[in-house]
Amino acid sequence: QLYGLEKFWAFLKYYKHADRLEVDSKLTEYLSQFKSIEDFRVVE
């Protein structure tokens, strides 16, 4: 599921020093496709 990715995305979005963190380029590229928290919703 996307639970962990959603939490990490939110952390990067709302943590005030997130721009100082080094995040793997593949992970950054993957997370860039999510523009809002709603994008993590999975239709069951």
Question: Outline, from the CA principal axes?
Answer: globular
Number of contiguous helices: 2
Average pLDDT: 91
Strand content: under 5%
Low-confidence stretches: none
InterPro entries: DM15
Pfam families: LARP1_HEAT
GO molecular function, one term: RNA cap binding
Question: Summed up, what is this model?
Answer:
Helices cover 43% and strands 0% of the residues. With 44 residues, it is mainly alpha-helical.
Please describe what this structure looks like.
It is globular and about 30 Å long. The protein is built from two helices and no strands. It is mostly helical. It has one domain (3-40). One of its GO terms (molecular function) is RNA cap binding. It holds the Pfam family LARP1_HEAT. One of its GO terms (biological process) is mRNA stabilization.
Descriptive key words:
44 residues, mainly alpha
Give the arrangement of secondary structure elements.
Blueprint: H1 3-14, H2 25-31
